[in-house]
Design a protein that fits this description.
By secondary structure, this protein is α+β, with helices and mostly antiparallel strands. It is 26% helix and 18% strand. It is globular and about 75 Å long.
Length: 618
């Protein structure tokens, strides 16, 4: 139930950040395309490759594959260019916040106790497996203690073994909130380390000194205990999805003797298949080469086919797409890490040779609307449901770029999550139903047109998308007034003073791992959001004590399948009460050169390029 702000760079200009949150009663700290089309198309057609569709990746008519394309090979060797706009903020496993950076690090050099399976089957990508650990752990009956056993034969790049103490030390760095900042703080939220009166941890991390530091270290060592190759975590609250939480790099090992603390932002000391050659050049990148002490026998997740991965950042996304599409000497062995701009996406769908080396995954980022339950307009549930019924999600998707940019979404639970469902409690469909909306307004006994204000973060694309929504609402008996916000959007709408003047808020969200626990409680559990200081991330001040209790109980369900069914039930109740209105789940579009093989995406990791088994013709 980690609480994080996760705004997609594609939908917004900012990268993910963290804010505070509680689990239960505990506080968490939580384009315009410039191409000579005729010449380029001719060159690209000449460079086409044969495509073999993978299980689970069959496209619907007129859409690109969403999971995997290209020949599947097990060829080792060659150099792969990974091209990105960036910038990478850090490679420190306890500091990494951006979803794409987490995914790359986790497949290339940063291992954790658990990981999500590397597969081209979208339905299997949410399967969690042992990584550094032999399995996904053994929980106690009350889910407040979890034990894992480390694999034999896992080594750092200097040949020394990865130990239980390394894992414990790595996680302890999360508590050093003055030195190691910016990454997930789930360890502070769930580990049974005592807190001070002000809610801060009594443990200040491994760099602290003095008597208080020693006492804090003793408390941490009790919560994260090593016994040979066995590590046991004691938690402050029952946590059914703890094994999935551990898949984040923030729960990975760090070798204490090489840790430079606050000064090691771009240090890479690898336990994975690749290590950084030399140093990382901020704004330019670096080259990852084979870790000679990595063993495929000790790694059930990564295939590590290329000899080198040259990560280049600071490259314009449109220029990257053009370079890869043109398939010149460099482009043939390159893959774009940024989604192709909308204009180029349209071009890619029109050229078969480009489609055959492109993948168009869902990213897990869902745009949604939140009616303000404290406003005079939307305190009535039927009026909230009327707005949901009137919302034309198809028009919204068209405005933000069409079918390669997003899918219409009723629910906030992305399709990659086991809790995802197709229920539409309003039964209005994705095109909206003005007749149904008018009927609900009539039942509510309100005078039409119903006036309301809607705040959203403004840019040219968002302006068009909001205009499309406004048109559908007017057809149903609403009279909306838009309030575009251009600066510090999320800080603005979380200010309680804003709630007095706004009736509906636009927002977006993405899960931290493959569970509804990382979507619904962070946004709608009033016990961990709504205070006198403001709504937290529950912008609409939605409050339902029974539903809050249901979320707490669902978090403590041991069986994963049953737990995720529970989250689906929570989501249905939220939709039935009009707590939010889903709009669209964003897509990305990645292009690879004709010598790249095994191009696929991982929906659970954020719909990013999968580096666990990508290959290149040597």
């Amino acid at each position: 139930m980690a609480r994080r702000d996760r705004h997609t760079p594609d939908a917004t200009p900012e990268h993910p950040t963290r804010r505070s949150q509680r689990r239960g009663s505990r506080r968490r700290r939580p384009v315009r395309l410039l191409l000579v089309v005729g010449l380029v198309v001719a060159a690209l057609v000449a460079a086409g490759v044969v495509v073999v569709r993978q299980r689970g990746s069959e496209p619907t008519p007129d859409t690109l594959p969403s999971s995997a394309v290209g020949d599947r090979v097990d060829t080792r060797g060659g150099t792969l260019n990974a091209l990105s706009l960036g910038p990478v903020a850090t490679w420190d496993p306890q500091r990494i916040a951006a979803r794409g950076d987490m995914a790359f690090a986790g497949r290339v050099f940063a291992r954790s106790l658990t990981a999500y399976e590397a597969t081209t089957d979208p339905k299997a990508q949410s399967t969690v497996v042992g990584d550094l650990a032999t399995d996904t752990g053994t929980p106690s009956k009350d889910l407040k203690s979890w034990t894992f056993t480390l694999r034999d034969g896992v080594q750092w790049q200097d040949g020394s073994p990865v130990t239980c103490a390394d894992v414990a030390y790595g996680i302890s760095r999360t508590f050093a909130t003055q030195d190691v900042v910016g990454g997930p703080t789930d360890a502070l939220a769930v580990l049974a380390v005592p807190r001070n009166a002000d809610g801060t941890s009594t443990y200040a991390g491994p760099y602290a000194t003095g008597a208080a530091a020693e006492k804090g270290q003793a408390a941490y060592d009790k919560a994260v205990a090593c016994d040979g190759r066995q590590i046991t975590f004691t938690l402050s609250t029952p946590t059914g999805d703890f094994a999935e939480m551990l898949a984040q790099p923030a729960f990975g090992p760090v070798k204490e003797s090489v840790d430079r603390g606050a000064d090691g932002s771009y240090d890479v000391f690898s336990a994975g298949p690749y290590m950084l050659r030399g140093t990382w050049e901020k704004g330019r990148g670096g080259t990852f080469v084979r870790n000679p002490h990595w063993s495929a026998a000790s790694d059930p997740v990564r295939k590590a086919y290329p000899d080198e991965i040259r990560y280049q950042e600071g490259l314009d996304t449109q220029a990257v797409a053009q370079q890869v599409m043109a398939d010149n000497a460099t482009g043939r062995v390159s893959v774009s890490l940024g989604s192709a701009p909308p204009a180029i996406q349209q071009h890619i769908t029109a050229v078969q040779s480009l489609e055959e080396r492109s993948v168009n995954p869902l990213t897990g980022v869902v745009d949604y609307l939140v009616p303000n339950t404290r406003s005079a307009v939307f305190k009535d549930e039927k009026v909230r449901l009327a707005l949901a019924a009137a919302t034309n999600r198809d028009a919204y998707v068209t405005a933000i770029g069409g079918k390669t940019a997003a899918d219409p979404a009723v629910s906030l639970l992305p399709r990659a999550l086991p809790a995802a469902h197709d229920d539409d409690p309003v039964a209005a469909g994705t095109r909206g139903d003005p007749t149904r909306a008018k009927s609900l307004l009539e039942q509510a006994g309100v005078t039409t047109p119903v006036k309301f204000t809607v705040a959203y973060r403004s840019d040219p694309t968002a302006d068009k998308a909001m205009a499309a929504l406004v048109a559908s609402w007017r057809q149903a008996g609403f009279e909306p007034e838009t309030k575009p916000v251009t600066d510090d959007y999320f800080a603005t709408i979380s200010d309680p003073r804003t709630a007095k003047d706004v009736d509906v808020f636009w927002s977006n969200w993405a899960p931290a791992w493959a569970s509804g626990s990382t979507v619904l409680p962070p946004l709608f559990d009033s016990t961990i959001n709504v205070t006198a200081a403001g709504p937290g991330r529950d912008y609409g001040y939605f409050t339902d004590p029974e539903l809050d209790e249901q979320m707490t109980k669902t978090s403590a369900v041991a069986d994963r399948e049953a737990r995720e069914r529970g989250w689906a039930d929570v989501d249905r109740r939220l939709l039935q009460q009009g707590a939010y209105i889903g709009l669209a789940e964003r897509r990305a579009l990645y292009v690879a050169g004709s010598d790249v093989r095994n191009l696929s995406s991982n929906g659970v990791l954020g719909g990013v390029v999968e580096f666990a088994d990508i290959a290149v013709v040597p």
